[in-house]
Write a structure and sequence with these properties.
The complex is a heterodimer. By secondary structure, chain A is mainly α. Chain A has helices at residues 6-26, 31-40, 45-69, 75-98, 101-121, 161-178, 183-193, 198-222, 228-248, 254-274; strands at residues 137-138, 145-149, 152-156. Chain A has ten helices and three strands; from the N terminus they run αααααβββααααα. In chain A, a hairpin with a 6-residue loop joins β1 and β2. The two termini of chain A are 26 Å apart. In chain A, 65% of the residues are buried. By secondary structure, chain B is mostly helical. Helix content of chain B is 75%, strand content 2%. Chain B has three helices and one strand. The chains are: A mainly alpha, B mainly alpha. Chains A and B meet through α3, α4, β1, β2 and β3 of A and β1, α1, α2 and α3 of B. β3 of chain A pairs parallel with β1 of chain B, so a sheet runs across the interface.
Chain lengths: 276, 104
């Protein structure tokens, strides 16, 4: 595709912006909504997946600075889990280049349903004020860390590593095949399975999602599946939407947004299944 | 007030606090946004290279971030995690080589 129409440009920018805002506020990520919506509205699954990964990459870059300022990212946990997630995403992306359109749509519909389920079953994320303490941060030679809580600090240490790392491979595989970031699986894995605080889990997943997306995009680009102009439009929307979503996060009910997104995901999944 | 569930007392606090990452990430977001916007407004001859440039900036930034962490952790003599970061880069590189080989 050497050029896109104005209508197509507006469509890609708008849908990427909207899904990024909703994903940031709801805590599900934007690509898990973007990719099924694009596919259900006529974009092929093979083309929509790279656009989803671009949305994830842009969102990760846009949000990285604020998460670093809040000292909520645990890079060591992120890198260790990413060793496994990247393996999954590379395998998934390579497979998606060989698979036909219908299997990809089926996996995408399943991922949308799974995201809908995690959206309504995960507990509400409370926002915590930043506490200026010299001990806040991650630890050299360890996966443990300290993060700020109301009135002080709290330390944490990941648990159930084998189970958590296995789920990371699965989330990476889904990300590679569908173009969704896999954050709807990664965040519950870090917080509920590996016992990380929700705030640390969310910030760490945002960091690792960018790496996962880069790994997938390297494969997609070499498969010739990244369309430059729709990709640029998606980046614009994701950068704007991620910034708006980060500012709106404290003002809107994330639980209500997640429930609304879950309903949309179920409808989109049904649309994809009907087209199989 | 401190609440503990980890072994933070046995390991020093990491010196990697984002002093360089934060401005670099902001610069990357701004650069990618400007290139992408220009690509949508530019004439056809310039649109595609500008769009590709924005995609490259967005895609490469997380990889550079991992490389940065590998170097900083090596400075902290945290060899295991530095090796893990290099392993992530190796996995991405392997995927790219495999995809390139299969695309021919």
């Amino acid at each position: 595709m050497t050029s896109i129409s104005v209508a197509e440009m507006v469509w890609y920018v708008s849908i990427s912006c909207l899904t990024s805002v909703v994903g940031a506020v709801g805590g599900l990520g934007g690509a898990v909504l973007l990719v099924p919506v694009l596919t259900a509205t006529g974009t092929s699954a093979a083309t929509a997946a790279p656009l989803g990964m671009l949305s994830v990459c842009a969102g990760s870059v846009a949000a990285g600075s604020s998460h670093l300022r809040a000292r909520s990212v645990n890079h060591r946990v992120g890198i260790v889990t990413e060793c496994f997630a990247s393996s999954g995403v590379v395998a998934g992306a390579l497979l998606s280049g060989l698979a036909g359109e219908r299997p990809l749509m089926a996996v995408l519909a399943l991922a949308a349903l799974l995201a809908a389920l995690t959206g309504v079953t995960r507990p509400r994320q409370a926002t915590e004020p930043f506490a200026d303490a010299a001990e806040v941060g991650e630890r050299v030679g360890s996966l443990s860390g300290v993060y700020p809580v109301i009135g002080g600090t709290a330390s944490y240490k990941p648990r159930r590593l084998p189970t958590g790392l296995t789920l990371m491979v699965l989330s990476g595989g889904i990300a590679g095949m569908t173009g969704a970031s896999g954050g709807f699986l990664k965040t519950p894995t870090l917080s509920d399975v590996m016992s990380l605080p929700t705030k640390v889990a969310a910030a760490t997943v945002t960091f690792t999602s960018g790496i996962t997306a880069s790994a997938a995009l390297a494969v997609f680009a070499l498969q010739g599946r990244v369309e430059p102009l729709p990709g640029a439009a998606t980046i614009v929307g994701a950068l704007v939407g991620g910034g708006v979503g980060a500012r709106a996060q404290g003002r809107l009910s994330s639980l209500a947004i997640r429930r609304g997104v879950s309903v949309v995901l179920v409808v989109v999944a049904g649309t994809l299944v009907s087209r199989l | 007030m401190k609440v503990g569930s980890g072994d933070s007392g046995q390991h020093p606090v990491s010196s990697v606090r984002g002093r360089w990452q934060r401005p670099a990430l902001r610069a990357a977001a701004l650069t990618a946004g400007m290139l992408a916007t220009l690509s949508l407004l530019a004439p056809e001859a310039l649109a595609r290279p500008l769009a590709i440039s924005s995609i490259v900036v967005v895609s490469v930034t997380p990889i550079l971030r991992v490389l940065w962490l590998a170097l900083r952790w090596a400075q902290e003599r945290d060899w295991a995690f530095s090796a893990a970061a290099l392993a992530v880069l190796a996995i991405i590189g392997f995927g790219a080589v495999f995809a390139a080989a299969n695309s021919r």
